[in-house]
Design a protein that fits this description.
With 279 residues, this protein is α/β, with parallel strands linked by helices. 30% of the residues lie in helices and 16% in strands. The protein has eight helices and eight strands; from the N terminus they run ααβαβαββββαβαβαα. Strands 3-4-5-2-6-7-1-8 form an eight-stranded mixed β-sheet, with helices on both faces. The termini are far apart.
């Protein structure tokens, strides 16, 4: 390889590395995602179909809050100081493979997620025991000069793990938490008016949490279906939907909950309702 070609290759590799290690500066939500990104409510719920970018979007929002680096178009709440955050999901393995990966990058490549590498305190990272390559707590540099932090939890850890701390930044629940854990998380954010973000696909139907979120005037709600995001092509959607019942499609494609539970009562709302008519 000629010297000029080698220099070009190195330059391209350096550019790619720079892009990978600062995704925060380049990310722009889809138009259908913008209302959620710009929420001004303390509690917000993103209810959507599978693969529409829920976790990516909320990871971006949390990264903005942790670092204090907000884009020019941002119309939502701005937190002008370093804060403490929780991020929680169903199991430690899934949290590692979804929330952690979106925030901090792929396993073995910390700094290639939404949070820029140069703002991560590599020396103070605490790793989770029992789950290989899973992180427990990470400090993130805020523009105010102090350190924010985010701690990872999973619902299968049980209620006691969610007790004790008062959060001044917020909490992110990726997929629906059990009722008792949800109550505890709400307690942790209430004292200091911290944010509470939910992102989930309602595959479990109209759960008590779903019902509470939908009926509360305090919760800002955004619904997104797979048809609204440009990265899902017709061929991709066809593969995703293959073999699904209409009820399952309602939840996984459109973000609409299935009524009831189990195989016997697994049906969509459209299957038992009709348009209003005069008597």
């Amino acid at each position: 390889m000629a010297a000029n070609d080698l220099d070009l290759l190195r330059a391209l590799q350096a550019l790619k590395r720079k892009e990978d290690e600062n995704k925060l500066s380049a990310f722009i939500p889809y138009p259908c995602q913008m209302p959620f990104a710009n929420t001004t409510s303390l509690t917000s719920a993103l209810v959507a179909g599978n693969q529409i970018g829920k976790t990516t979007l909320v990871a971006y929002m949390v990264a903005c809050h942790l670092t204090g680096l907000y884009p020019d178009w941002w119309q939502g709440i701005r937190i002008p100081y370093a804060t403490e955050w929780w991020a929680a999901g169903v199991t430690a393995g899934r949290v590692r493979d979804t929330i952690q990966r979106k925030l901090f990058g792929n396993i073995g490549r910390i700094g290639t997620g939404m949070i820029p590498k140069h703002l991560i305190n590599m020396e103070t990272i605490i790793k989770k025991t029992g789950t290989p390559m899973a992180l427990d707590r990470v400090d993130v540099k805020n523009i105010d000069g102090d350190w924010s932090n985010v701690q990872f939890f999973s619902y299968d850890q049980g209620l006691e793990k969610f007790m004790g701390t008062t959060l001044d930044g917020g909490a992110w629940c990726d997929e629906e938490p059990p009722s008792d854990i949800n109550t505890e998380i709400k307690t942790r954010v209430a004292a200091k008016d911290a944010l509470l973000l939910y992102s989930f696909t309602p595959v479990d139907g109209i759960t008590p949490l779903y019902d509470d979120l939908m009926t509360s005037e305090r919760v800002f709600k955004v619904f997104i279906s797979q048809s609204e995001v440009p990265h899902l092509t017709k061929d991709a959607l066809s593969r995703l939907h293959e073999g699904m019942s209409e009820a399952e499609l309602s939840a996984r494609r459109d973000g609409k909950p299935v009524i009831g539970a189990g195989k016997i009562f697994n049906f969509a709302e459209e299957e038992y309702t009709i348009e209003p008519f005069e008597i």
